[in-house]
Design brief:
single chain; alpha+beta; 6-stranded mixed beta sheet; two-stranded antiparallel ribbon; 7 helices; disordered C terminus
Length: 302
């Protein structure tokens, strides 16, 4: 009786457990499933970050609109103290230097309840976890890679279109202001706002500068730049890598490249008549010869 009871207990224990072979099979199946799903999970994370990037650019678009409403339809300067002086009371400052105190990254954040960029101390500049940056915009680690120190001085994964201010730099200050104000963009004069680029994903990897042919150690250093600084870091389905762009009418669009294939690669800035990069494009109207007045000649023949 004892032996029979003992055998039944041992059998029950064996039925309630797993053999080594069964555990190995289950582990192999789980490992295989993870290997299959990992690319999909990675793609989903990248897609989510692209959506967050688009949302942040739309927030900047709202800030641009709010600023324009409160400032007579004008937009702020594209550059900031990343190009300008640290002190405003220097008597030798040029209008260009003074304009850098009115950059978009300093004037727009308070519109949304955030601090101006210049108020953040060194080593505490906004990173990719904040709305100031693209969620996939993070510089490379290690010294010697850049011509500046991005984690100390700060960096910009979004850049404002510098072509917006190639017309002039300063205009007469209003009453009570003792120094020239920058030539903010007059939004009422923009001919085609749905086509004019305002902000775009900016290159942060120096190795991919200028069509991946030239090392660009200043990647991400400036808050305003040109099409060659565009970054393709967001994967868009089967279309490959590209970047997000905020347009003057507030919509955001993914684009594979910002440099058009018909442009001369030696150019530093786009042609002056391009309607995507210039707010007031130069339109050339060809003069046509006047057609002959055939009705009059027919009248004379009668």
């Amino acid at each position: 009786m004892l032996c029979k009871a003992h055998r039944s207990v041992v059998g029950a224990v064996h039925l309630g457990g797993f053999s080594l072979l069964e555990l190995l099979v289950v582990t192999s199946v789980i490992t295989l499933l993870l290997a299959i799903l990992s690319p999909s999970l990675k793609g989903a994370r990248e897609q989510a970050k692209q959506v967050v990037c688009s949302s942040r650019l739309r927030q900047w678009g709202v800030a641009f609109s709010c600023y324009a409403v409160e400032n007579g339809g004008m937009w702020p300067h594209c550059d900031g103290l990343d190009r300008g002086p640290d002190e405003l009371d220097d008597p030798g400052l040029s209008p260009e230097d003074l304009a850098d105190w009115h950059g978009w990254m300093d004037l727009l954040p308070p519109m949304l309840g955030f601090e101006p960029w210049r108020d953040y101390p060194r080593y505490q500049r906004p990173n990719e976890a904040t709305f100031y940056q693209c969620p996939m915009g993070r510089p490379l680690e290690g010294r010697g890679t850049y011509s500046y120190r991005p984690f100390r001085d700060g960096y910009f994964s979004y850049a404002m279109n510098s072509c917006l201010e190639l017309d002039k730099n300063a205009w007469s200050p209003p009453d009570g202001v003792g120094y020239p104000m920058p030539s903010f963009i007059d939004t009422a004069r923009i001919m085609c706002p749905q086509r004019v680029i305002v902000l775009f994903d900016q290159l942060l990897d120096p190795r991919k500068g200028f069509d991946e042919q030239k090392l660009y150690r200043g990647a991400g250093k400036y808050s305003g730049s040109y099409p060659k600084a565009f970054s393709a870091r967001h994967r868009h389905g089967r279309s490959g890598l590209g970047g997000n762009i905020l347009y003057a009418d507030g919509h955001v669009k993914w684009q594979r490249s910002a440099w058009k294939p018909e442009w001369d690669p030696e150019l530093e800035v786009p042609p002056r008549d391009d309607p995507n990069w210039y707010p007031y494009p130069v339109i050339t109207i060809e003069k046509k010869s006047k057609p002959k007045n055939r009705s009059r000649s027919r009248g004379r023949g009668r």
